[in-house]
Structure prediction request, 182 residues.
Amino acid sequence: MKFNGDKQEITRRAKAIRILLLDVDGILTDGNLYYSAQGEEIKVFNTLDGHGIKLLGRVGIKVGIVSGRDSAALARRADELGLDLIYKGREDKLTVVEEIMRNLDLDISAIAFAGDDLPDLAVISRAGLGITVPNAHREVKNAALLETEATGGAGAVREICDYLLQAQGHYAEIIEASRNGK
Prediction:
């Protein structure tokens, strides 16, 4: 994880996170668009990312999706992961985050947001923890407090999840439970 600022301050912010919101294309996927011969959109998701999302849920950190695109593949993956904060086909991501804050009575400081392109910039600039990936647009990289080592669709979300678990003191208990088959 690359820190864009004071590491202690960023870790302090990470301790306050209650919701991780994710863009999809470029964060949960590699950002490429794949189409079958019949024109059906195909998305590739990383299982490590999915397990990280489930681990956050076990410690009470909600995970949601805020995507400018809508697809059947995304709906299926969100369902598989048990996500209930799903906003698809929404380019107005800051408005979505403001809705979430009102509905859940949360301050922006409790929200981490991971995105990679200009539609994500407003939220990344304001969130308690703005996060991006190495292949993000340069303006997004400049605004984000954290940058993963892994690229989108290749374990970046898992890296974010592990960082939040560590910052909030849950990582060791997760590892111990895993060693004990739980």
Summary: The chain has eight helices and nine strands. The longest helix spans residues 47-58.
